[in-house]
Amino acid sequence: MLKRRFTPLTLVNQLVLIVLLSTLIGVTGMTISARLVHGVQGSAHAINKAGSLRMQSYRLLASIPLTAEDQILLDNMEATVFSPELEQAAIRDGQVEQLSALQKYWQGELAPGMKKAHSQATVAGDVASFVNRIDQLVYAFDHTTEERITSVVSAMRWMVLVMALLLIFTIVWLRARLMHPWQQLLRMARAVSQRDFTQRARISGRNEMATLGMALNNMSEELAESYAVLEQRVQEKTARLEQKNEILAFLWQGHFRV
Fold first, then answer.
1. Nearest to 14 by CA among 239, 258, 208, 244
2. Rounded to an integer, what distance in angstroms lies between the CA atom of residue 89 and that of residue 57?
3. FRET pair for 85, CA 20 to 30 Å: which of 129, 161, 239, 257?
4. How far apart are CA 103 and CA 132, in angstroms?
5. Which residues have CB under 8 Å from 135's CB, separation 6+?
6. Distance of alpha carbon 229 from its chain centroid, rounded?
7. Rounded to whole angstroms, how far apart are CA atoms 93 and 87?
8. Which tens digits make up the pLDDT trace of 10-57?
């Protein structure tokens, strides 16, 4: 078990690991960006709702004294104050207390005061205070949105940097572990096919390329030895044949002399 753990990864496993790592970095970057962008969109919707609150406040102020026909304006204002977009944005941005205070101010002071007011001057101060609370909430949402946008840009920069480093590492790794060893093996195979057994593959490590290089080196050495033995035997047989030819030629010449 320990031997397997400390054994270097094969080239295939290393390549798979690089692909998985690049995929993981890409998926992580997209996930982080998607969450941050979702938060930015939520804050933008909340800011729009808050801006709508401001406009509705001034519209109600302009309608004072309110009549039965203006009840729809109060209902719309109530729905906007307690809208899910504002509540979700307040939870996400940590502005629950500020939104809750705004809602209480609307229910406890501004709405009852507007219903009873007979002139705009009596509730103008309350409306200004309400709008000021809205502006503070909008500022908080806007500040959080800017922070999220900055985080998105920073995350993208880091992801680009990490991917660039991984790309450089992959190129260097491919050249060192695959291209150069493969070129050595091809040169050695061509040399062996041309009966040149002097070349050797010099591939370090304990991966597939090193194993192939070692196998080709051993095969080349064995072929060189076999070829040398074969040449020696051919030379010996050639020498014997030459001796026999000389003896036969000598005997033939002696026969004619006799």
1. 208
2. 21
3. 129
4. 13
5. 54
6. 59
7. 10
8. 777 888 888 888 888 888 878 877 777 777 777 778 888 888 888 988
What six digits make up the tokens of 19? 């692909």
In contact, 10 and 137? CB cutoff 8 Å = no
Alpha carbon of residue 12 to chain centroid: 20
pLDDT digits (tens, 9 = 90+) for 191-201: 877 877 777 87
pTM above 0.70, yes or no: no
CA-nearest of 90, 125, 95 to 110 is 125
Which residues, 6+ apart, have CB-to-CB distance to 200 below 8 Å? 188, 217, 220
User: How many Å apart are CA 245 and CA 71, to the nearest integer?
Assistant: 132
